[in-house]
# Entry
Amino acid sequence: MRRYILKRLLLIIPTLIGIMTLNFFIIQATPGGPVEQMIARLEGIGAQGEVSHSSSVYKNQGLDEAMIAKINALYGFDKPLATRYFLMIKNYLCFEFGDSFYKNTPVVNLLLEKLPVSISLGLWSTLLIYLISIPLGIRKALKDGSTFDSITSTFIIIGNAIPIFLFALILIIFFASGTYFNLFPLRGIVGDNFESLSLFGKIKDYFWHITLPVISLSIGGFATLTLLSKNSFLEEIHKQYVKLAFAKGLNESQVLYRHIFRNAMLIIIASIPSALLGMLLSGSLLIEIIFSLDGLGLLGYESIITRDYPVIFGSLYLFTLLGLIITLMSDLLYTLIDPRINFQQA
# Structure
């Protein structure tokens, strides 16, 4: 097991370098970078940014060479492409992401500032989905074809069909706008008086603020995991060893949790990394905008719009590293659920 863990940890480095290399050259070749946007601001034409890097084009816009050189040096574009690339790789391996082009703040500080919001949304949403979907999926498998199975499937399909942003707006209208009820706050992850509250008050205030965002972000994940759990348990229920266990006199609970659960949970555990990262990456942006939550999703979106390369690469690096680590943790959980799995030969 130690050999496998060491091998996976060592593979993280070339994986990160490969992903960063690919994205570096793609983004560098994309028009509308920070230099072009600065030129556009100086020219008073907005942030169109559809200008090439050549100094001749800049000259045609009425800027002299000294101003062009100053702008390029400001954003680090006075160095050759290869130099920028190797400098980036060196710095990122040491977790030195540089400063944001536009916020004049170290990228590490920005990421650490926004990370708690995204982690809160992703972690609690994933936990809520698993706590509800797995027991529901098991129950549906045991009651396959019954009225309970049909009714719950209908509600799950309807919930899955509702877009996240629409469900968030519905929750706001009914529970936060005052039109019907005014039970939850509309913005922020904590209240303005958070620091003055007691420990219990802080915990209560925190969960009071994240209730609606977490429910909104969770609605789309119930269907997939519930049906995955149901189908996984159904497949195991019809296997020969289950019939043999019943023949030996074991009751339903013993067969379910001693034999079926261990085998059926493997495929469900395998979906944890993608579920958690999906919450952090795909759904969090809309939820952060609707509920005025300043997290990584909103930060990443703004950095892409403004071509803030340090923030783009810092966010990409962080999410990639988290994904690789979570995937490794998922593999290790396999051995806890089913000791028969052995990674020694991996």
Summary: The first helix runs from residue 2 to 28. Residues 46-60 have pLDDT under 50 and may be disordered. Residues 175 and 181 are 5 Å apart (CA to CA). The chain has 15 helices and no strands.
